[in-house]
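note to self — DONT lose this again. spent like an hour looking for the file last time. sequence + predicted structure for the chain T wanted, 257 res
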Amino acid sequence: MSPIERALAPLARAAEPLLGRLSLDRASNQASARQLMAEVLGTFGLVFFCAGSAHVNWWSGGELGALGVGLANGFGVAVMIFAFWSVSGAHLNPAVSLGLWLTGKLPGRRLAPYVAAQLAGALIASSVMHGLFRNHTGEGESWLGANFSSGPVIQAFGTEIVITFFLVYAILMLAERGRGATVFAVAVGLYVAAAVTLAGSVSGASMNPARAFGPAAIAWFWDNHWVYWVAPGLGALFASVFFAVLRDRQTSDPPSA
């Protein structure tokens, strides 16, 4: 046992009674703890890069530009997937977890804990950004990269449905074909970069309720926040339906995360 593992052992023993409600044995408890911690850390990184790049672009007067923000989002997401894919599947997004559950790739008992871990990671990341960035412009509190629509709400709503649809559909197909972490990271990272570059100025290109929730909660910026829950949820639902229709029935499902 490494020094770090010895130091963390008391915390693991203390957490076992709580984790026991999710699983029946100690091995399952430990696996669940690792998966949830991976979702917390991975979502932390995702929100820090995605919302952080939007915030930095704002206070720098647009120095990053649409392409810079898109690339920061794509690279950040890719690294987080590569780092945590082997532990939890690197969902990092309630819409992705919903799609995986709807298609039978995530057990129902894990859906709520995964979403809770993702929201916790988003809140922690936004709190860190609040401490690091809030006074950077000399204007006190800021919006911390929270998503908002610069045009009609229906435009943002429709955009979020479409871009989330293709994100979740691509992830479901990659999971169906048993692709490894590298392929997942590169494919999803490239898609996120493209979607944010294209739609960032329309809706903020969230595609992720956790990414929208963390900055909104800490900055207390709730303008049309419902869009960033309902639209990704619908996008994930539609992606699951099309996946069920178009999937290759000859291909067996990989093990669930």
